[in-house]
Amino acid sequence: MPGAAPDPRTPPYVLTIASSDSGGGAGIQADLKTMTRLGVYGGSVIVAATAQNTRGVEGSHVLPTESIRAQYEAVADDFDIAAVKLGMLATVEAVETVADCLADYDGPVVLDPVMVATSGDRLLDEDAVDAYDALFARATLATPNADEAEALTGVFPDSPAAVSEAADWFFDRGADAVLLKGGHVATDDDTVVDTLVTPTETTTFVNPRIDATATHGSGCTLSSAVAARLARGDNLADAVRHGIEFTRATLAEPADVGEGAGSVNHLVGVGDGWTPDTDAPDGDD
Ligand SMILES: Cc1ncc(COP(=O)(O)O)c(N)n1
């Protein structure tokens, strides 16, 4: 049944292929926290280990392509991958390796074209951008923010005509759909308009703007949430709506961690977290 709660003993398996954020707010860490919160079992292929906190990116070590491939093969050999999310892929070699790994995968792929961190640090080599074409061809959904869309397509998507022109660029490269995120676009009425475009349909999601400075991790969270919901059987528009709702919740109650701007809060609504069953009789097993 679409979107039905999965049996926790047989959760859908969702794979993130992305990079580690040592600070825990974005990257693989945000992806796995999001997947857990959305009721799917998350696995990871780590492309690069960034040395990062809420202030910025101090360094990045990209794993050898053999290691990226070996991680993917170990996962693909053993698990039934219900959806893939792609995040920071760092270099042209990594992008090509991931495209090659996914050649035989035919499930949904949510592609977040991560290029520059919220902190302004570059996360994708300039020469890797062209290599992305092979991945757009595999994308069920690409999720660029307005700056990424402009860097890729040359069009800043701040009007319906510009959104449609930018979307065509992704369709020309074989993407099935694109979510042009509106968080970086100023509006007169303090709303954020996210636009889901397919070759036949355009759906807008209009929400009040959340006045957040702790936005670190929001793009990773949204794309992972959409992948999780697709894995649970949602159609694309429902998956995107759920993804936006979860991301808005994590933005509305940011985590006051670190000395920088903080990050989105995947603990929103968790309360005390898991607690032991205090009714169980002591020492009786
Ligand atoms: C490893 C990694 N992946 C993605 C991002 C982008 O996240 P943001 O733009 O929210 O900083 C990041 N900073 N680090």
Automatic annotation (TrEMBL):
Superkingdom per UniProt: Archaea
Domain Pyridoxamine kinase/Phosphomethylpyrimidine kinase: 21-265
An annotated Gene Ontology molecular function: hydroxymethylpyrimidine kinase activity
One annotated GO biological process: thiamine biosynthetic process
One family name in Pfam for this protein: Phos_pyr_kin
CDD domains in UniProt: HMPP_kinase
Annotated Gene Ontology cellular component terms: cytosol
Alphabetized InterPro entries for the sequence: HMP/HMP-P_kinase_dom (IPR004399), PM/HMP-P_kinase-1 (IPR013749), Ribokinase-like (IPR029056)
UniProt keyword list: ATP-binding, Kinase, Nucleotide-binding, Transferase
Protein name: Phosphomethylpyrimidine kinase
Keyword Nucleotide-binding tagged: yes
